[in-house]
Amino acid sequence: MRRLAVFAAVLVAALAAGGASAAPATVRVLVVKATWGPEPYPDAEVASSLQSVADFYAAASFGQVALSFTQTPWLAALPAAQPVSCGTGPDAPGVVAAATAAADAAGFASSSYDRVVVLLAASGSCVNVGFLEAPHVSVVNGDDAGVLAHELGHTFGMGHAGAVWCISAITCREDPYGDAWDVMGGAALHDFGAFQKARAGWLPPTYVATPGLYELAPVEEPSALSQALVVRTAATEYWIDHREALGADAYLAGDPLVTAGFEVHRIGGDPFATGADPFAIDYLVPVGRHNQYVVPPGETFSVPGVFALGDVGRADGVVTVRFRWLDTTKPTTPRFSGVSGHVVTFTSGSDTGSGVGHYLLTIDGFAPELVPGPPLPPSGAPAAQTTVRAMLPALARGDHTLSLVAVDRAGNRSAPATALVRG
C-alpha cells in the first residue's frame, strides 16, 4: 500500500474555498487534532512539522503564500468504535464534520479559517495516509510534514505528480505518484514542479510554438526567465522544467544527473480549459530507455512526427533548450457550414500532430484574415472536430468567394475550402 492515498472524487469547492486564483498572501490554517482516545503527537512536535511546512510553502511560492497555523488541543471528536477508519472511505464527511464541530465547540470557529486540517490519531493500517475532503485536508501522521504539504497542495489546485514507467519499449504504465522529485508525487518534502506552481498561480508558463532556442531557469527560485516551457500539440500539452540543488531540492547535489538537464511532463488536453479536471495529473515522460527522466546536454527528447527538444547546455543553473517541429503533415480541409448575416460557420480541420493553430479566411482573393483555431480539449476529453465561427465584413452586393485554409502549429497548411456567398 502506498504511503499516501487521495480521494479521486474531490469537490471543485476546494478551489472556491481558497484556490489558486484567489489565494491570500496569508493563509490561515486550523489544525484540528481529533481523537477517539490516544494523543500520540505532543504540541511541540506538531508545531515543528507545521513550521517546516510553512517554511516550505514560503520558499516554494516565491514568497506569495504565508501559512499561519493554529492547532487545537486533542479533541475527543470520534467514537471509540471507529479508531482504525482514520476518516477514509464513505465515513470521511462525517469524520470531518465531527472534528470541525468539536473545534467549534472548543471556541476555534473553523469556518473563519482559509483551510482546515484534521489531524487524526494514527493507528495500524492508516499510518501516513492522507486525503482531501474539500475544502478540508485530513492527515494521519503529524510527524510527516511531506504528507501535510502534499495534501495542502491539493487545496491550491494541484493534482498529483506522476511518471510514465516502462518495462519494455512497448509496455508502459502511468504511475500517478511516480515523480519522486515533487512533493505532489512521492510526498517527500521536495519542491513542486513548474506545472504545480502554475496551477497555484505562482509562476506563468511560456507557450512555445516558434522553433528556436529558449532559456529555462530552475523552479526553486524566482526568475525573470521562463521556468515552464509548454508545447501544445493536437490533444496533449508537454511541460518542460528544470531543477537545481536549491532550497528544498538541496539534496539533488548528490544526484548531478538531475540538475544537468531538463524534464518533460505530459498532460492530456488543456488543464486550464473550462471543464478540465481541476486536479489534472502531469506525468514525467522517460527519455529513451531505462526510465531516464532527464534530458542531459547533447541529447534530444522527441515525440515522433510532432516535435523535438534538444538540450544545448547548462550555464549558471540555466538550461538552454532548442525547440523544433517534426510535423510535416497537412491538416485536413475544413468544411463550410453556412453563412448567416455577417457570421460564417465551418467545421474545423483535424490534425493529429502539432494540432490546428489558426485559419486563414480570404474573401475574393484579398489579404487573408486570421481566425483563431479551436481550443485544446480539456484534460481527459477526446479531441473532436469543432464548429468555428468567424465574422465577415460588410459585403458589397453580388457574389463573393470565400476561401478557408487550416494552418497547424508547425506551419503546415491544408487544401483550401471554398464557398460562394451573396452580399
Summed up, what is this model?
The protein is an alpha+beta fold and 423 residues long. It has helices at 13-16, 43-60, 92-105, 145-155, 194-199, 256-260; strands at 26-35, 66-71, 75-76, 115-120, 130-133, 136-139, 161-166, 172-175, 206-208, 212-216, 229-232, 236-241, 263-268, 282-284, 300-303, 307-315, 318-325, 335-340, 343-347, 356-363, 369-372, 387-391, 399-408, 417-422.
Structure description:
The structure is a single chain. With 423 residues, the chain is an alpha+beta fold. It has 3 domains: 143 residues, Collagenase (Catalytic Domain) (3-Layer(aba) Sandwich), CATH 3.40.390.10; 165 residues, no CATH class; 88 residues, Immunoglobulins (Immunoglobulin-like, Sandwich). Helices cover 14% and strands 32% of the residues. The chain contains 6 helices and 24 strands. A hairpin with a 5-residue loop joins strand 7 and strand 8. Helix 2 packs across helix 4. The longest helix has 18 residues.
Write the layout of secondary structure elements.
Elements: H1 13-16, E1 26-35, H2 43-60, E2 66-71, E3 75-76, H3 92-105, E4 115-120, E5 130-133, E6 136-139, H4 145-155, E7 161-166, E8 172-175, H5 194-199, E9 206-208, E10 212-216, E11 229-232, E12 236-241, H6 256-260, E13 263-268, E14 282-284, E15 300-303, E16 307-315, E17 318-325, E18 335-340, E19 343-347, E20 356-363, E21 369-372, E22 387-391, E23 399-408, E24 417-422
Parallel strand pairs: 1-2, 1-3, 1-4, 4-6, 7-14, 9-11
Antiparallel strand pairs: 5-6, 7-8, 10-17, 11-12, 12-13, 13-14, 15-16, 16-17, 18-19, 19-22, 20-21, 20-23, 23-24
